């Protein structure tokens, strides 16, 4: 168990290092000059060159890599080319926003997936079970930006219940929830639908297991048997898929943040790419990579806790 | 428990979840509270007198930071100039130069000495006194500018302090446009102690004080109660930055913002015009959407071929595709607010048959061109129309979409690697670039360069205007590019908001006259 956890941590660390090299050198060959992006269309070549030297982008890639990566892990991500202020606080602010949004999205997804998936499984081969499956199929086929636009059209523009965009920090309380509701819903709907299908499959599978028949034979009613013996077993694949969905949600958040004008990692990243603000792009991409890897690591560590059989598997 | 009841319990759970979500909305279905991030800054029309009101304005182009001396693009100075910062002179709504920190001025007969009488009793927001030394400091600092065309004031040689409130700006050669450029960002007066923090702070003499800028989200300005001139009409202004035209349009519909400037949601203006509580204001901009033709290409080196291409383009169709018909068709390089504007929209009127004849007479056969298009919707829409038009007259066009600005600027303006390239040139008085053979469109005409120098040396308005008119005619005749249209400057306001400038003159957006009624 401990050995397994250590092995996972080792893989995690190695992947982070490899990812940092890939991210840095891929961005190094991105066409477009950061200095010219700052100075605009009319700037003279001399001024552009002077700024290039000032920003240090004229130095060799390996030198810049080492400087950046040591800074990154000591909390000094450098100075943004565009805003001329330290990158770290900007990335951390945006990260907080995106994390809240993604957690909201996961919350919505789980709220949708568990009931819908379990119902679809329990009621399969019956009209309402088929209806729940159809609903989840429909949910999967709607891209989340479209869901966002539709939600804005209905709940913000037509009904006027919720703001059409923008963000309020958690300290704002109700205002925070009002700003979070639509984007979290847009983000969570599709993933909820996907997750519902996995939940349905997992529950169906569990219901066919021998131990379920034994539980029924002991006199437990189907619902009680499922609650007491079935769900825990069905949860293992669901938790795994949720962690994979977590990565999807972060990527989905990039789009949703643009639709809802939310100052998170996604909108910051898009702007940084347009400005060729390389230190900013590198730091954001690394944060996302680390987040996704952390989520996977967490699931690897949590799964044995849900299913004792996995503790001995490795 | 039978399965049916189990499923009912779950259905009920779903319903409760849905209710909980809508409950978040039920708490505030008052549309005026449905503000954007920082709803506190939104308009509170109806509460208190107009002068206590705040106004929340949606903007596009996001400032990367606050320093327009070293950061390109109009976004920064549009927000700060005339509001936080001021110069010696300003442009009024008609584009005329008017006094600002200089109450009057005199120009020597040879046009090389500008003597300004300065306003007295003016202080910067941090308390620094504005005087002749500040003028000298600010204008001599133009050497340190790297963005926003400092070369336009390269004629400024030195500044002599006559006394505390009088200065003489010495030019190395006469430059008729000097006052125009002094009225724009280049003429900004800076306090010497503030120039190290220009990227994050703004300390000026203007009617608003800079409060805060949350990067790419919002900027807040508050009325300067010690302003030397007439006080601003609103107590505070919040500029909310959008990157998506539809998001901004939704925000004004839901009360998230009170007004939108520089809107490009062209497909939505019609529906806005039908709405009672939103007004659409269509003014003109400094923009010239031009398709440059690279004379390094064998066929394009021939003026008759360039004129034929100009004639082959259906500019009405371009305008319809790019802006849903808002804006003015051009045909020449000047815009309607230029003092020397001439309407060339009929010069190369759309006539594919004539264009084919012109191509044949120039001996151009099997012409195939690459067309570099920035990934902006106006440009992509225009380019597709042009591609169709040119294929109709037998010219094959290969569209290359390039990321703007990073890739497009590098490929076209720096490397000059294009046959055709389209862009909206937003900088005002762009004519200087037709007198510069090194500029990316590579227009090298001795006649045009002479005329430009002659216009710059003019000391009276008539001489300047007539020379510039002559210059535009020469340029249009040579057609180094096809000037397609002047994009509209569209503002949207909700009820009770007035005083926003109609036209974009390439300077600051003066917000001091904005008022909120009711």
UniProtKB/TrEMBL annotation, chain A:
Gene3D superfamilies in the record: MetI-like
Pfam short name (any one): BPD_transp_1_N
GO molecular function, one term: dipeptide transmembrane transporter activity
CDD domains: TM_PBP2 (cd06261)
Stated name of the protein: Peptide/nickel transport system permease protein
Keywords for the protein's UniProt record, in alphabetical order: Cell membrane, Membrane, Transmembrane, Transmembrane helix, Transport
Domain ABC transmembrane type-1: 95-303
Similarity remark: Belongs to the binding-protein-dependent transport system permease family.
A GO cellular component annotation in the UniProt record: plasma membrane
Membrane-topology descriptor: Multi-pass membrane protein
InterPro entries, alphabetized: BPD_transp_1_N, MetI-like, MetI-like_sf
ATP-binding as UniProt keyword: no
Localization of this protein: Cell membrane
Transmembrane segments: 9-30, 99-122, 142-164, 176-198, 234-260, 280-302
């Amino acid at each position: 168990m401990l050995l397994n956890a250590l092995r996972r941590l080792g893989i995690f660390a190695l992947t982070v290092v490899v990812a940092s090299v890939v991210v840095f050198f891929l961005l190094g060959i991105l066409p477009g000059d950061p200095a010219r992006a700052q100075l605009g269309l009319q700037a003279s070549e001399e001024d552009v060159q002077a700024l290039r030297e000032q920003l240090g982008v004229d130095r060799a890639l390996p030198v810049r890599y080492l400087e950046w990566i040591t800074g990154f892990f000591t909390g000094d991500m450098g100075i943004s080319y565009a805003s001329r202020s330290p990158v770290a606080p900007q990335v951390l602010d945006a990260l907080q926003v995106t994390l809240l949004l993604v957690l909201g999205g996961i919350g919505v997804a789980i709220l949708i997936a568990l009931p819908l998936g379990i119902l679809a499984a329990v009621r399969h081969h019956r009209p309402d079970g088929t209806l729940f499956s159809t609903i989840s199929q429909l949910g999967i086929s709607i891209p989340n930006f479209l869901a966002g636009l539709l939600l804005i059209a209905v709940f913000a523009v037509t009904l006027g219940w919720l703001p059409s965009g923008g963000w309020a920090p958690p300290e704002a309380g109700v205002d925070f929830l009002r700003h979070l509701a639509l984007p979290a819903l847009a983000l969570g709907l599709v993933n909820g639908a996907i997750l519902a299908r996995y939940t349905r499959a997992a529950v169906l599978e569990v219901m066919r297991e021998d131990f379920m028949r034994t539980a029924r034979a002991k006199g437990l009613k189907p619902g009680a048997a499922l609650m007491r013996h079935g769900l825990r077993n069905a949860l293992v694949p669901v938790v795994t898929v949720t962690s994979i969905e977590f990565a999807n949600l972060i990527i989905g958040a990039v789009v949703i943040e643009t639709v809802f004008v939310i100052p998170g990692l996604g909108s910051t990243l898009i702007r940084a790419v347009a400005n060729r603000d390389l230190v900013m792009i590198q730091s954001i991409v690394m944060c996302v990579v680390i987040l996704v890897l952390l989520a996977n690591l967490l699931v690897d560590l949590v799964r044995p806790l849900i299913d004792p059989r996995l503790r001995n598997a490795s | 428990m039978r399965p049916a009841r189990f499923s009912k319990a779950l259905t009920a759970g779903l319903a409760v979840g849905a209710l909980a979500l809508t409950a978040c909305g039920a708490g505030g279905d008052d549309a005026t509270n449905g503000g954007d991030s920082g709803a506190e800054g939104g308009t509170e029309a109806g509460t208190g007198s107009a002068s206590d009101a705040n106004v929340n304005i949606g903007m596009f182009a996001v400032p990367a930071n606050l320093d327009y001396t070293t950061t390109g693009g109009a976004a920064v100075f549009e927000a700060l100039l005339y509001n936080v910062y001021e110069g010696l002179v300003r442009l009024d709504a008609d584009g005329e130069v008017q006094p600002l920190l200089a109450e009057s001025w005199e120009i020597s007969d040879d046009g090389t000495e500008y003597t300004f009488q300065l306003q007295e009793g003016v202080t910067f927001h941090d308390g620094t006194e504005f005087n002749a030394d500040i003028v000298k400091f600010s204008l001599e600092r133009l050497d340190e500018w790297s963005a926003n065309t400092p070369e336009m004031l390269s004629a400024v040689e030195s500044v002599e302090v006559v006394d505390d409130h009088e200065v003489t700006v010495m030019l190395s050669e006469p430059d008729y446009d000097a006052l125009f450029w002094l009225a724009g960002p280049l003429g900004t007066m800076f306090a010497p102690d503030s120039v190290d923090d220009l990227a994050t702070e703004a300390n000026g003499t203007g009617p608003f004080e800079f409060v805060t800028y949350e990067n790419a989200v919002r900027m807040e300005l508050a009325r300067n109660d010690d302003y030397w001139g007439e006080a601003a009409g609103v107590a505070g202004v919040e500029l909310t930055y959008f990157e998506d035209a539809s998001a901004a349009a939704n925000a004004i519909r839901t009360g998230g913002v009170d007004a939108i400037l520089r809107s490009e949601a062209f497909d939505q203006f019609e529906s806005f015009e039908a709405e009672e509580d939103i007004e659409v204001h269509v003014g003109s901009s400094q923009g010239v959407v031009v398709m440059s033709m690279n004379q390094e290409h064998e066929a394009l080196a021939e003026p008759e071929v360039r004129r034929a291409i100009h004639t082959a383009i259906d500019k009405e169709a371009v305008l319809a595709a790019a802006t849903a018909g808002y804006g003015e068709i051009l045909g020449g390089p000047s815009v309607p607010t230029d003092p020397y504007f001439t309407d060339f929209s009929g010069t190369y009127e759309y006539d594919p048959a004539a264009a084919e004849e012109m191509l044949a007479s120039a001996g151009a056969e099997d012409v195939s061109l690459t067309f570099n298009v920035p990934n902006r919707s106006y440009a992509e829409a225009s380019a597709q129309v042009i591609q169709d038009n040119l294929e109709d007259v037998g010219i094959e066009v290969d569209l290359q979409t390039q990321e703007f600005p990073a890739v497009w600027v590098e490929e076209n303006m720096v490397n000059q690697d294009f046959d055709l390239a389209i862009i909206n040139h937003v900088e005002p008085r762009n004519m200087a670039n037709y007198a510069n053979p090194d500029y990316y469109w590579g227009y090298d005409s001795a006649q045009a360069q002479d005329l430009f120098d002659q216009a710059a040396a003019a000391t009276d308005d008539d001489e300047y205007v007539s020379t510039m008119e002559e210059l535009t005619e020469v340029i249009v005749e040579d057609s180094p590019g096809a000037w397609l249209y002047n994009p509209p400057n569209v503002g949207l306001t909700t009820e009770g908001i007035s005083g926003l400038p109609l036209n974009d003159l390439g300077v600051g957006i003066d917000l001091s006259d904005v008022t909120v009624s009711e």
